[in-house]
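Lab meeting tomorrow. Please check the following:
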Amino acid sequence: MKLIRGLYNLRAEHQGSAATIGNFDGAHLGHQAVLGQLREYARSANSPTTVITFEPLPQEYFLKAKAPGRLTPLRRKFELLRDLGIGQMLCLPFNDQLANMTAETFIQRVLVDGLAVRLLVVGDDFRFGRNRAGDFALLRQAGEQFGFEVVDTRTHVCSDGERVSSTRIRQALAEGDFAMAEKLLGRPFTMSGHVIHGDKRGRQIGFPTLNIRANRPVSPLKGVFAVRVDGLGNGVANVGTRPTFDGKSMLAEIHLLDFDGDLYGRRITVRFLKKLRAEKKFDDFQALVAQINQDIEAARRFFDGGSGENEIGQSPA
């Protein structure tokens, strides 16, 4: 799959595709249905497929730290769309210029001059452009004017009687319901990243950790979890800002059970299995060490077949 960053990188070979527009955060079952519809239309029109998306996401641009937690960083989104058979992803920087671009200008610059789309698949409730003034009807009019077809996504995918959405997945993650999140995503929820050097405090107190950046402006989950790291084994992960040490950046710190080794620079994937407790600030090192020991024991019980629920002195958040 091709990644095209910004309109200025568009070339003639990128034009003439069937396209769709959206955040596609999570690339969940609902998104997969839309992308399947896009591929179906593209095959009938003998066209390549394009997903038009944004970085940062519009909500992150407007809401900053109050934005909903992102399910998939850009790299992971690219991998998922590639695996779903999409031919190219146009990633537009969502900045002041794009936020203030009129719907008509967006159509002209992106869809007509930039991509020369042959077909556009969007929902009939799709809104775009400055003040969200553009809608499905405007796209239909533009399609008639410029010679591209606009089709509505046929149905919303539902699970347990409710629409599958990124918001619903974030709620499941916040509640520690990883089974529901997996059901809606169509795969387990994971975080991936390269192991980086931290402050070495974990090693100093006897609990070495693998540290990876969350790579999200806002994380969809925070707390302490029983996890499995692909190819390495089981562990306990803290996702948060490390309030005991007045941390600022969002990190995932993973302590692997019964493992000792140097993995700096290696890319790892962490699968979240159970929420053990919320992140909290401790008064001193002794209290922190005591809690970590309880977390590890609760995780071991979980992996040995016990639930581990509420066995660590605090109820999960």
